[in-house]
């Protein structure tokens, strides 16, 4: 396989096919916070084929190619990057898509590729470690560290000085229904532990309400007696959702992937000690809305019912720094070790 003007092995050229897919996945993660698992299946198959192909080429090349240029970096890639991805997913440090993309990268890029363009060979800087997926990971971590700094500079330039200026920015309440992230405010002030906006959308869809309706009459909807007898499917909180209508005229919102029927809530008199019906909502969906507690939901609704502008954390998905780390690795190499050796 050849590409005009580029000199590289066939496996390395085929690896470039995956780069636009990672770019699309990063963009989709920014826009929807949802990346289908089916994206990674064909990439995993391609990665496995290319890994075996490279192994066969290294074995037949003789000399020290097999143990030093293939076996050692591959062992580091599969034996270090894969466990790191799984561990961070298990403890909640990564989302599912972040972990899966690192697993794919560990198999797809176990060793440093080489792309000769004229007299220049990319990546410009290699490392003694030789595990390219580890380079991508360290690059991604460095990019992720720089994001809060860039955010703080942006806020400072706009005159927005606050303790949370490194992790968020203020937005108008009208943008909240189409915004991803987490509230950085509670009724008592700024906080890092505010309401997840996906959980907010789940709650509003469950009640068949819009945020504008809640703001128009917050006292009414704070009363749990206004909870619907037959709540709508809460969906998974994604911004995009199909909108339907109950036969009684109430609005029903559901995502295309959410085929589950919502169970009716308890017909008994609602508990007057349950403002906003937060407990009833979480009990009805069997517990978890991205770790949201009834208290967090109540605090978030109280803020959004009154405030014109609220601070939110965009919660940039780690898949974005991973893609940036991949691009930097392919062009420059290892940002950390490349400057030390």
The coarse silhouette is elongated
CATH names the topology of the largest domain as Four Helix Bundle (Hemerythrin (Met), subunit A)
Are there runs of 5+ residues with pLDDT below 50, and where? 242-271
Task: Domain count, please report it.
Answer: 2
Structural class estimated from helices and strands: mainly alpha
Q: What order do the helices and strands follow?
A: EHHHHHEEHEEEEHHHEEHHEH
Arithmetic mean pLDDT: 86
Q: Return the CATH architecture of the largest domain.
A: Up-down Bundle
Q: Mind telling me the C-alpha Rg?
A: 25 Å
Number of strands: 10
Largest pleated sheet: 3 strands, antiparallel
Q: List the strand order in the largest sheet.
A: 1-2-3
- Report the end-to-end length measured between terminal Cα atoms: 33 Å
Name of the level-1 CATH class of the largest domain: Mainly Alpha
Q: How much of the polypeptide forms β-strand, as a percent range?
A: 5-15%
Per DSSP, the total helix count is 12
Helical coverage, percent range: 40-55%
Membrane topology: Multi-pass membrane protein
GO molecular function: aspartic-type endopeptidase activity
Organism: Natrinema ejinorense
Protein name: Peptidase A24
Describe the structure.
This protein has 341 residues and is mainly alpha-helical. It contains twelve helices and ten strands. It has two domains: 165 residues, Four Helix Bundle (Hemerythrin (Met), subunit A) (Up-down Bundle); 146 residues, no CATH class. The strands form four sheets. A three-stranded antiparallel beta sheet has the order 1-2-3, with no helix packed on it. It has a three-stranded antiparallel beta sheet with strand order 4-10-5. Strands 6-7 form a two-stranded antiparallel ribbon. It is elongated, with a radius of gyration of 25 Å. The two termini are 33 Å apart. About 9% of the residues have low confidence. It is a multi-pass membrane protein. One of its GO terms (molecular function) is aspartic-type endopeptidase activity.
């Amino acid at each position: 396989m050849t590409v005009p003007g580029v000199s590289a092995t066939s496996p390395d050229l085929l690896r470039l096919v995956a780069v636009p897919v990672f770019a699309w996945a990063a963009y989709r993660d920014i826009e929807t916070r949802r990346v289908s698992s089916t994206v990674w299946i064909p990439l995993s198959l391609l990665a496995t084929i290319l890994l075996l192909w490279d192994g066969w080429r290294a074995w037949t090349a003789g000399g020290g190619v097999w143990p030093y240029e293939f076996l050692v970096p591959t062992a580091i890639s599969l034996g270090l990057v894969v466990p790191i991805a799984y561990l961070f997913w298990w403890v909640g440090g990564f989302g599912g898509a972040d972990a899966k993309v690192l697993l794919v990268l560990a198999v797809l890029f176990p060793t440093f590729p080489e792309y000769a363009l004229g007299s220049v060979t990319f990546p410009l800087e290699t490392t003694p470690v030789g595990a390219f997926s580890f380079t991508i990971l360290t690059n991604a971590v460095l990019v992720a560290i720089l994001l809060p700094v860039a955010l703080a500079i942006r806020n400072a330039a706009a005159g927005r000085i606050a303790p949370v200026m490194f992790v968020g920015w203020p937005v108008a309440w009208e943008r909240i229904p189409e915004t991803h992230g987490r509230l950085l405010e509670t009724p008592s002030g700024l906080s890092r532990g505010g309401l997840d906006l996906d959980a907010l959308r789940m709650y509003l869809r469950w009640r068949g309400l819009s945020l504008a309706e809640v703001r128009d009459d917050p006292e009414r909807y704070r009363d749990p007696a206004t909870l619907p007898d037959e709540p709508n499917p809460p969906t998974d909180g994604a911004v995009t959702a199909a909108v339907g209508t109950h036969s009684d005229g109430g609005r029903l919102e559901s995502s295309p992937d959410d085929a589950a029927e919502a169970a009716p809530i308890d017909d008994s008199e609602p508990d007057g000690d349950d403002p906003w019906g937060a407990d009833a909502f979480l009990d009805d969906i069997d517990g978890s809305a991205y770790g949201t507690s009834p208290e967090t939901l109540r605090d978030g609704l109280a803020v959004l019912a009154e405030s014109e502008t609220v601070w939110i954390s965009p919660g940039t998905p780690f898949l974005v720094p991973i893609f940036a780390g991949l691009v930097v690795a392919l062009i420059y190499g290892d940002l950390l070790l490349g400057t030390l050796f």
